[in-house]
Design a protein that fits this description.
heterodimer; A: 272 residues; 2 domains; 6-stranded mixed sheet; 10 helices; B: 358 residues; mainly alpha; 4 strands; EC 3.6.3.25 (chain A); ABC_transporter-like_ATP-bd (chain A)
Chain lengths: 272, 358
């Protein structure tokens, strides 16, 4: 088992740091339905952590617990060494947790640039009056953050559409814009809810490359949910496997692949 | 041919985010400003000011205000008339209580008071959306008009129940009251329109505007990236009501001079401003001007053509006006939900390539 304070080195030689976020015995119920049952796992600095499982396993619920949408009935969320009190989603976002959605949640009426700029909310603090006259802090912030946003836009190769309203973009590009918006926040943890859903092979390759590059360039910690097993096994450093709200496996892709409970969950077991 | 961005290079991000990024637009804007400030005041007479310019300018402020709430933040409001009344009565009370202070300060303070009232009536928006919110703001409309009718303190216990603006001067020139010269009333309104439009534009191109639009387009996603929905919605109500309050104050003090609340700031006013925003274009400052101009000019034009040129009876022309405005609203909602502003944008796209369409 891994030590909480020390990191480890991955097969490809990347250094993974200490624990950023730890879920301790999380249980989430909706009335009589138990969506998540007594699950614990940790996310370490700089790693790509995957959460997988068959449909209805509770993966998205888990992500919603992390991002503050759902409040678990039992268990604790520890973030950056402190227990996190129950908070609203926007407060979680301001602590540096950014996410993307399974069904794209972009602002359709706004341009790509404006969408990505909204990701900078955490960094832009000018008051209403300063913004109204567009002088001093407001103007300075606008330019500084624009510079950062342009780097992200450059990085994700969406320069050519920066002024296009998001509503007019095709699906694959929208996914990329959503990633850009999340990245613009300079998150300490980036949550990706099925970043490759509904994509063809080339788009998946592009997206995988972006996920790896993000992790590599910015050192961003990433937690992702994905159904494509090939993608998951290739990208992630450690994998949590869920089934019917319970954790049935946790470890490196190789460990998980050979875990009998995981094989049973995915392939089914013979009932006699 | 005239209208193009080729060769107009931006070398800084502040250049790129300015209000009129295209050179041609920018020069046209300067020309409009020059004409509005330096030419129009010398050539207008009483008829033009009272029939066209004052209502256009004042409704433009109200439309900008409502557009921030409805067009940018996506919160439907039918309380515009009520909020204009708050601005008017606040201005009246301030003018009569502190006669030595400048009217300009009074108008701005009236906007501030209306902002406070707007925030109060905006509170339901945290729980309810769309149609239901519209009904909640309708309550504001009726309550406010009732309040100003029934509480004599608001109209200084005058026998008629009306409020009328005493004479106030700016730099020695009367801008309210019977002695006001046409150009003086026009200029004071123009200054307010100019300031309001710039403030609205700055807010909507910056972070405040992005927060509002995020709430409008998808409130859940807005919250997940860090927009506090409470602050965003209430700030939209505050800013919107601030502008509407200013327009109400000007409407009363400079344009009408005397006001009976039920008649002037009734539900029809709320709908009129809402139609301006819809016809002009939701989520566009230019659209607010276009909508205000359209709905102010249309009756004047129809009256001049039908009554003046064709000799129709006045009431027939007035009824025809209702029918035309009604038909236009339906037409716009079906054919061009983004209003005149969108038509203008499409025209500009075409002009960019003209005369070589490919």
């Amino acid at each position: 088992m891994l030590d909480a304070s020390e990191g480890y080195t991955t097969e490809d030689g990347r250094k993974i740091g200490g624990v950023v976020m730890e879920m301790k015995n999380i249980t989430l119920r909706f009335g009589g339905v138990i969506a998540i049952q007594d699950i614990s796992f940790d996310i370490r600095e700089g790693e790509i952590r995957a959460i997988i499982g068959p449909n209805g396993a509770g993966k998205s619920s888990m992500l919603n617990v992390i991002s503050g949408f759902y409040h678990p009935q039992e268990g604790e969320v520890w973030y950056q060494g402190a227990k996190r009190p129950p908070m609203k989603p926007y407060e979680v976002a301001r602590q540096g947790i950014a996410r993307t959605f399974q069904n794209i949640a972009l602002f359709e009426g706004m341009s790509v640039l404006d969408n990505v700029m909204t990701g900078r909310i955490r960094q832009m603090k000018a008051g209403m009056l300063a913004q109204a006259i567009w002088r001093g802090k407001a103007e300075r912030e606008e330019v500084e953050n624009r510079e950062f946003v342009e780097k992200i836009i450059d990085f994700l190769e969406i320069q050519h559409i920066r002024k296009t309203p998001v509503g007019r973009l095709p699906y694959g590009l929208k996914k990329r814009v959503e990633l850009a918006r999340a990245l613009a926040a300079e998150p300490s943890i980036l949550l990706l809810d099925e970043p490759m859903a509904g994509m063809n092979v080339e788009e998946k390759e592009d997206m995988s490359r972006f996920v790896l590059d993000v992790n590599d360039e910015f050192g961003t910690t990433i937690a992702l949910i994905e159904h494509d097993m090939g993608v998951v096994m290739d990208l992630s450093d450690r994998v949590v496997v869920m089934d019917y709200g319970k954790k049935i496996g946790d470890g490196t892709p190789d460990e998980v692949r050979n875990n009998q409970a995981v094989i049973d969950a995915y392939l089914g077991v013979a009932h006699d | 041919m005239f209208y193009r961005e080729a060769g107009d290079f931006k070398t800084s991000y502040s250049d790129d985010s300015q209000t009129f990024p295209i050179k041609f637009d920018r020069y046209r804007y300067y020309v409009v400003l020059l004409v509005a400030f330096a030419v129009v005041p010398f050539i207008i007479n009483d008829y033009w000011v009272n029939a066209v310019f004052l209502p256009f300018l004042i409704y433009a402020i109200a439309a900008i205000g409502l557009n921030i709430l409805v067009g940018y933040c996506g919160q439907v409001s039918l309380g515009t008339g009520g909020f204009m009344a708050v601005g008017a009565y606040a201005c009246y009370k301030l003018m009569t209580s502190f006669p030595e202070i400048s009217i300009i300060i009074h108008v701005i303070l009236a906007g501030g008071i209306t902002a406070g009232v707007g925030v109060l009536f905006g509170l339901p928006s945290l729980r309810i959306k769309g149609f239901y919110l519209a009904v909640a703001t309708l309550a504001a409309q009726f309550f406010l008009v009732w309040l100003f009718n029934r509480v004599p303190w608001f109209y200084n216990y005058s026998a008629s129940g009306q409020i009328s603006a005493p004479e106030r001067t700016v730099l020695g020139v009367p801008v309210t009251g019977a002695e006001t010269q046409p150009w003086a009333g026009y200029l004071i309104c123009l200054v307010f329109v100019f300031a309001c439009a710039i403030i609205a534009r700055n807010l909507t191109r910056g972070m405040a505007g992005r927060k509002w639009m995020a709430i409008r387009d998808m409130d859940i996603a807005a919250e997940i990236i860090g927009v506090n929905p409470l602050k965003a919605k209430l700030s939209a109500f505050a800013v919107s009501s601030f502008f509407i309050g200013i327009s109400g104050a000007l409407f009363f003090a400079v344009y009408l001079g005397a006001v009976e609340v039920g008649e002037v700031f009734g539900i029809t006013k709320s709908f009129l401003v809402l139609f301006m925003v819809i016809i002009g274009g939701l989520g566009s400052i230019f659209g607010s001007f276009a909508g205000a101009a359209f709905l102010v000019l249309l009756p004047v034009l129809l009256k001049n053509v039908l009554v003046g040129a064709m000799g129709w009876p006045t009431d027939l022309a007035a009824h025809l006006e209702f029918m035309i405005v009604g038909a236009l609203i339906i037409l716009f909602l079906i054919a061009e939900p983004h209003g005149l502003a969108q038509l203008w944008r499409v025209a500009k796209e075409k002009l960019r390539l003209w005369p070589f369409p490919h």
